[in-house]
């Protein structure tokens, strides 16, 4: 077992085009000994967003704090602390923070083989 303290992981700005006011902390991945999946902690400042994007893998998301608008090619959904989401492979998606406080969410993705 390996314990990682999120507070000891430095937040990295997300710099892809379309990202605004968003940081990520890589909590668990290969450097921590995870062989198959990565766990990341994203923080969106008020008005912040991830890029609108898609990729060939699924990912699971858990809203830890605040609120997020989750945009997909099919719809826009409000998600709040305690909600879990499944983003399917190749699904276009984006996370936005419409609130007045920071939104934080965990995102789990498979690691490349």
Q: Spell out the helices and strands N to C.
A: EEEEEEEEE
- Number of DSSP helical runs: 0
Overall mean pLDDT score? 96
Structural class: mainly beta
Rounded to an integer in angstroms, the radius of gyration calculated over CA atoms is: 14 Å
Furnish the topology, listing elements before pairings.
Blueprint: E1 12-13, E2 20-28, E3 37-49, E4 59-65, E5 67-72, E6 76-80, E7 84-87, E8 93-96, E9 103-110
Antiparallel strand pairs: 1-2, 2-3, 3-9, 4-7, 4-9, 5-6, 5-8
Keywords:
single chain; 113 residues; three-stranded antiparallel sheet
How would you sum up this structure, described in words?
The protein has 113 residues and is mainly beta. It has strands spanning 12-13, 20-28, 37-49, 59-65, 67-72, 76-80, 84-87, 93-96, 103-110. The strands form two sheets. A six-stranded antiparallel β-sheet has the order 1-2-3-9-4-7, with no helix packed on it. It has a three-stranded antiparallel β-sheet with strand order 6-5-8, with no helix packed on it. The radius of gyration is 14 Å and the shape is globular. The model has no long low-confidence stretch (mean pLDDT 96).
In short:
By secondary structure, the protein is mostly beta strands. Helices cover 0% and strands 51% of the residues.
């Amino acid at each position: 077992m390996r314990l990682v303290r999120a507070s000891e992981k430095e937040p990295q700005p997300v710099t892809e085009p379309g990202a605004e006011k968003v940081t990520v902390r890589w909590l668990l991945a290969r450097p921590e000994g995870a062989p198959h999946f990565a766990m990341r902690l994203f923080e969106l400042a008020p008005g912040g967003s991830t890029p609108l994007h898609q990729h060939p893998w699924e990912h699971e998301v858990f809203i830890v704090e605040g609120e997020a608008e989750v945009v997909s090619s099919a719809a826009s959904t409000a998600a709040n602390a305690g909600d879990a989401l499944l983003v399917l492979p190749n699904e276009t998606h984006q996370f936005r923070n419409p609130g007045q406080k920071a939104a934080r969410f965990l995102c789990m993705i498979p690691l490349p083989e």
